[in-house]
Specification:
6 strands; alpha+beta; 142 residues
Length: 142
């Protein structure tokens, strides 16, 4: 995963919370920073622990912020982009009746091991065919 963009936020509350862990289910305490690999507040007036003033995260890629130890103190940490694997994201907002939000994740497909071997094999066959054809032409020219 190369980006995690907060593309929409509409609420009477200025911020929500998002964080993630490695693995297929959430373990630990959702209110303890050490339970997350990375986390951030998001919204139209998000206040984060790095000391910056409240600001909108709409349109912002949160992944590099979530990896920054001053932005997500106490998190276990990670280095973007996220490699192929399984992750559990937690998204929390205290006023669900009047809130809507959207996150857009950009993922880069990982080629299957067989596909690169197939391309390598096809390339080898093409070179072999070209060599044979050139050898045939070389014999005809003489």
């Amino acid at each position: 995963m190369t980006s995690y963009v907060n593309s929409k936020y509409v609420s009477t509350d200025e911020q929500g919370f998002t964080g993630f862990q490695f693995g297929s289910s959430f373990s630990g305490d959702p209110f303890v920073a050490g339970s997350y690999a990375g986390y951030a507040h998001f919204g139209t007036g998000a206040t984060n622990p790095d000391g910056s003033p409240p600001s909108s995260t709409v349109g912002v890629d949160l992944l590099p912020l979530m990896a920054n130890p001053s932005f997500a103190p106490g998190a276990t940490g990670f280095t973007p982009p996220l490699a192929a694997g399984t992750y559990t994201f937690l998204i929390q907002q205290g006023n669900p009746v009047t809130t809507s939000y959207q996150f857009d994740m950009t993922v880069t497909p990982v080629p299957e091991p067989g596909s690169s071997l197939c391309l390598l094999g096809m390339g080898g066959l093409a070179i072999l065919a070209l060599r044979r054809r050139l050898g045939y032409l070389d014999r005809r020219i003489r």
